[in-house]
Amino acid sequence: MSKKGDKNKGQDNGNSSLVAVIMGSQSDWDTMKHAGETLEKFGVAHESRVISAHRSPSLALEFGSTAEARGLEVIIAAAGGAAHLAGVLAAHTTLPVLGVPMRSEALNGLDSLLSTVQMPGGIPVATLAIGKPGAVNAALFAVAILANSRPELRKKLHEFREAQEAKIRDTKL
Length: 173
Ligand code: RP5
Fold this sequence. Notes:
Layout: E1 11-12, E2 19-23, H1 29-41, E3 46-50, H2 57-66, E4 74-79, H3 85-91, E5 97-101, H4 110-117, E6 126-127, H5 132-147, H6 151-169
Helix pairs in contact: 1-5, 2-3, 5-6
The protein binds 5-O-phosphono-beta-D-ribofuranose.
């Protein structure tokens, strides 16, 4: 995921990022690349990188506390197991944080789901579905948030829904 010689700076799609896709481990990338691909389809500038709440706590603090000043508008945070990443980032920013629980080996993602969703009142994390559907929906949710002030994105969301419905209507078994 990192460029050679550019240690864990993650990847971005060029422009100044509006959405950050953060994950607790490189092992989450196979799932979380679907968030990036979805943002790509809508032409939303984004960046993806690994930050662990437990293994790199000072990096999590630094990222969360500087995210707003950097111009980010939404953070997607994915983690598995004792999944505290979304909550820790939310503790350091007032930006909307969308949590994606990863499917874990031991408990199939139920641990990740409960760790992400059970935030104490005062520090919100919007929690999506476990795994790939959560990754895709987190990106769509981020687009929906950005679309509140960007009519061109609202239009793209309507077109996306229309295309999705047309596909169902045209399905022949
Ligand atoms: C979490 O632990 C990560 O988000 C990942 O889902 C899980 C396992 O990480 P690895 O041991 O594969 O690095 O922090």
